[in-house]
Amino acid sequence: MATERYVDTAPMCDIHKFTMGDPNVPAQYDARTSTGQWANMCEPCWLTHSAGGLGTGIGQRLIVGEEPVRDRAAEVRAAMDRKDVTLSEIEDIVGDGDLADFL
Q1: Phi, psi of 68 (to 5 degrees)
Q2: pLDDT tens column, 41-98
Q3: Which one-letter DSSP state was computed for residue 98?
Q4: Left, alpha or beta for 65 (phi > 0: left; psi -120 to 50: alpha)?
Q5: pTM to 2 decimals?
Q6: Helix, strand, or coil here: 32?
Q7: What percentage of the chain's residues is helix, strand, coil (to nearest 5)?
Q8: Is 24 exposed, middle or buried (0-12, 13-18, 19+ CB in 10 A)?
């Protein structure tokens, strides 16, 4: 799971809505709370109530808007220019595509 997710509109902060009676605070995170439940949270609530961090099983930062188009060919070229690049890194960039298409 990525650490970021693009959304059309921000959901409201569940912590504010259900514990503070304020249903109009936009959330910036969808994350697991320190008590194990998942919630949409604004930045202050995420800092206070989240399990900490972002990633698989932990949470994602929500970004309102469209995800930018990824230039995988440029990413492959930049990675290959590095002297310490691994095949695994290249495979992560290419994904299900054919490496030849990115060279």
Answers
A1: -65, 150
A2: 999 999 999 998 999 899 999 999 998 888 878 888 888 888 787 878 888 887 777 7
A3: -
A4: left
A5: 0.69
A6: strand
A7: 35, 20, 45
A8: exposed
